[in-house]
Amino acid sequence: MDRSRSWWGWGTTDAALSDDECRGLAGMLPGLAAEPVPVPRIADLGLRAPRIEAPSSLADRCSTDPADRAGHTYGKAYRDVIRSLRGDLPHPPDLVARPRDEQDVVDLLDWASSTRTAVVPYGGGSSVVGGVEYRGDEHPAVMSLDLGLMNEVLEVDEVSQAARIQAGALGPALEAQLREHNLTLRHYPQSFEFSTLGGWLATRSGGHFATVETHIDDLTESIRAVTPSGVYASWRLPGSGAGPSPDRLLLGSEGTLGVITEAWMRVRPRPSQRASASVVFGDLFSALDALRELTQSGLRPANCRVLDEGEAQLAGAGNGEQSVLVLGFESSGVPVDHDLADALELAASHGGVASAPASRGGRDASADAWRSAFLRMPYVRDGLARVSAVSDTFETAMTWERVPDLIADVRAVMPAAITDACGTPGRLNCRVTHAYPDGCAPYFSVIAAARPGEELETWDALKVVASEILQRHDATITHHHAVGRDHRPWYDDQRPDPFAAVLGAAKRELDPAGVLNPGVLIG
Ligand SMILES: Cc1cc2nc3c(=O)[nH]c(=O)nc-3n(C[C@H](O)[C@H](O)[C@H](O)COP(=O)(O)OP(=O)(O)OC[C@H]3O[C@@H](n4cnc5c(N)ncnc54)[C@H](O)[C@@H]3O)c2cc1C
Questions:
Q1: What's the half-sphere exposure (Cβ side, CA atoms, 13 Å) at 141?
Q2: Residue of the nearest CA to atom 48 in ligand 1?
Q3: 145 alpha carbon to ligand 1 midpoint, in Å?
Q4: Burial class of 382 by CB neighbour count within 10 A (0 to 12, 13 to 18, 19+)
Q5: Pocket residue to mutate for ligand 1, from 152, 195, 265, 481, most atoms within 8 A of Cβ
Q6: Between the CA of residue 298 and those of 329, 405, 420, what are the distances in Å?
Q7: Is 50 exceeded by the pLDDT of residue 1?
Q8: Which of 9, 265, 282, 341 has its CA 20 to 30 A from that of 151?
């Protein structure tokens, strides 16, 4: 079986939807194309010839193979899939470098700075915001710096429960190595299988923990990075009040200030106690009220997601008229059944009707249905893209008191915008992926039938409408998908001007030749 990574879409080629499965999706919405567009062959892409050669000392770390270059041209956003399907790859990297150790990273950055070759750090390439693609022509050449060979857990400190992990480790490889010590990082973004520790740190990813330690930031003890100006390493500390945190500058730096090579991460014993249930509500807002009270009550479910009526139905967890709260508690020692019972009582006071709770490793059926649909979703998205669907998401976070207005506004404006752009109505769903005592992270998905050939333009127009709604409500342009190139206009507006100036100064200091991920975050 072919387990190779797809160059144009999500995951591995063997898991992609077949042509027949794509035809099956065409019945999902009126207006979808009956026949899937074919996936272009790499040989037919006509990639621009490489414009630079690596120096002989680094040549064995660098590839100019067309499949490598095509696969490193874009991330894995919907618009990346569409452009790949169109064979539209005008700015492929000239070479793909795979350092084996930190010295290789130093040498590659030195060479890139001296030749003004743009460097795009690349982890798993799962960016959905244009984070790993080069746009423009200001640099004479572009190198994708793929950390994939630096993928080991180098050290485990079982006393302090921390592990030193190389940045290029993909989620499964990292967890497999920690499992040998009965430890786990338990950071599971939806993209877990095909994203790396370095990418998570560089984008401040949001993981499976839906309350408290939601972002990778919370699991980070110290970070080591190579910048064109030298190595940048912070001390291992459980906490520190010594001035602004050096880690904070690298967290979310999106490859613009340095290449993260490794980090000490907080790990924990694998959970042995689990309890989960799903709770059905008559409407989304009652479910959200329950969720707010839950997070404010001091209960800390590891998993708690609210799915609106459409989202629950799509995931096979609801009948299309009910909103669902998926709840899961876990611990490596104390039983969590009481926590779940308290949470269910609280949910019941908001009209929630619970499924029979499953405990001690037992799994709730709705939660299971949701989880498998969740992991299959990116493959289905690619299949939908092949039958001319617009299928993408936008996400945000804001304080509780403003959440109902935002959701109401999105529900009022987006359906009309979709019909306007596509000529037929589409589907707009909402889920809440993370929750805090003072707010939550609403996440919206759009599925609609674009006019064949207009998929990209249609999504770009809808993305502007969506982002303007977020901006109107002072909701962040992203809770966990990062800024990249696609969120720049709204991010620039969101951040304070003096902070933008400080970031620019840091960039000039750490990357004087301006080669690191140009166009992302800064400048
Ligand atoms: C289907 C799907 C589901 C997703 N689900 C989630 C989710 O649940 N939560 C979430 O937070 N995100 C999610 N994402 C977005 C994406 O997976 C995250 O942004 C992830 O953190 C990127 O990791 P990566 O290793 O793939 O990084 P890449 O995509 O390779 O890179 C992302 C950015 O980080 C920089 N970078 C990568 N490695 C390094 C390094 N070592 N040093 C410096 N800079 C580096 C890159 O230059 C780029 O700017 C999803 C994406 C997809 C396609």
A1: 22
A2: 131
A3: 14
A4: buried
A5: 195
A6: 13, 25, 44
A7: no
A8: 9
Give tens-digit pLDDT for 105-137.
999 999 999 999 999 999 999 999 999 999 989
Torsion sign over Cα 466, 468, 469, 474: positive
Let me know the angle formed at the C-alpha of 72 by 68 and 73, rounded to the nearest 5 degrees: 120
User: Using an 8 Å Cβ cutoff, are 220 and 265 in contact?
Assistant: yes
Cross-strand bridge partners of residue 223: 263
- Ligand 1 atom with least separation from CA of 261: 41
Q: Which atom of ligand 1 is nearest to the CA of 517?
A: 47
Give yes or no for residue 71 CB within 6 A of ligand 1: no
Q: Tell me, using a 6 A CB cutoff, whether residue 167 lines ligand 1.
A: yes
State how far the alpha carbon of 520 is from the alpha carbons of 254, 471, 483, in Å. 7, 20, 7
Q: Which pLDDT tens digit goes with each residue over 50-96? A: 999 999 999 999 999 999 999 999 999 999 999 999 999 999 999 99
Which ligand 1 atom sits nearest the alpha carbon of residue 216? Answer: 11
Question: The tokens 């795009």 sit on which residue?
Answer: 120
Residue located nearest, by CA, to atom 2 of ligand 1: 191
Does this model's pTM top 0.90?
Answer: yes
Phi, psi of 322 (to 5 degrees): -125, 150
The conformation of residue 113, written as its DSSP 8-state character, comes to H
Which ligand 1 atom is nearest residue 201's CA?
Answer: 21
Cα–Cα–Cα angle for 238, 126, 141, nearest 5°? 105
Residue 482 beta carbon below 6 angstroms from any ligand 1 atom = yes
Give the list of residues 6+ apart from residue 50 with CB closer than 8 angstroms, or none. Answer: 64, 69, 94, 95, 141
- Higher pLDDT: 373 or 80? It is 80
Which residue type does 522 have? I
Max CA distance (Å), the chain? 69
